[in-house]
């Protein structure tokens, strides 16, 4: 199994985690994935969710150009509950970015 990579918003709050190409909320619900082998994350419906920045932050950039439909990777299965990573500390938002609104599954 791949290692867990925790993701935080600009305030340092833990909002998601990554295992391989899949992104989960802190309750271990699958909320997105990285279809293009870069840092752009899409929801399970294929909509842009955000971009991973600074290794452990995820931000929504409002000026991201549309990329082709990423397809659907298939449900990745249950990842198990990750341990709480603690607080990451504040980082100012990059220009043109906002904090990601984590979707509710279902």
- The coarse silhouette is globular
List how many beta strands DSSP finds. Answer: 8
Model regions low in confidence, pLDDT < 50 over at least 5 residues: none
Mean pLDDT: 93
Beta-strand portion reads 25-35%
Helix % is under 10%
The largest sheet, given as strand count, sense and whether it forms a barrel, is: 8 strands, antiparallel
Supply Rg.
13 Å
Distance between the termini: 25 Å
The side-by-side strand order for the widest beta sheet comes to: 1-2-3-4-5-6-7-8
> Number of domains in the coordinates?
1
Instruction: State the order of secondary-structure elements, H for helix, E for strand.
Output: EEEEEEEE
Counting DSSP H or I runs of 4 or more residues, the number of helices is 0
**Structural class assignment:** mainly beta
Show the helix and strand layout:
Blueprint: E1 4-8, E2 14-19, E3 22-24, E4 30-33, E5 40-43, E6 48-53, E7 57-61, E8 97-99
Antiparallel strand pairs: 1-2, 2-3, 3-4, 4-5, 5-6, 6-7, 7-8
């Amino acid at each position: 199994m791949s290692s867990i990579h925790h993701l935080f918003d600009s305030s340092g709050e833990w909002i998601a985690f990554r295992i391989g190409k899949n992104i989960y909320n802190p309750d271990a619900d699958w909320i997105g994935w990285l279809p293009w082998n870069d840092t752009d994350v899409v929801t399970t419906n294929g909509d842009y969710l955000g971009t991973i920045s600074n290794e452990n932050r995820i931000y929504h950039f409002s000026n991201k150009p549309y990329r082709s439909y990423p397809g659907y990777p298939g449900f990745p299965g249950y990842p198990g509950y990750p341990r709480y990573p603690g607080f990451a500390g504040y980082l100012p938002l990059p220009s043109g970015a906002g904090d990601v609104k984590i979707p509710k599954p279902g």
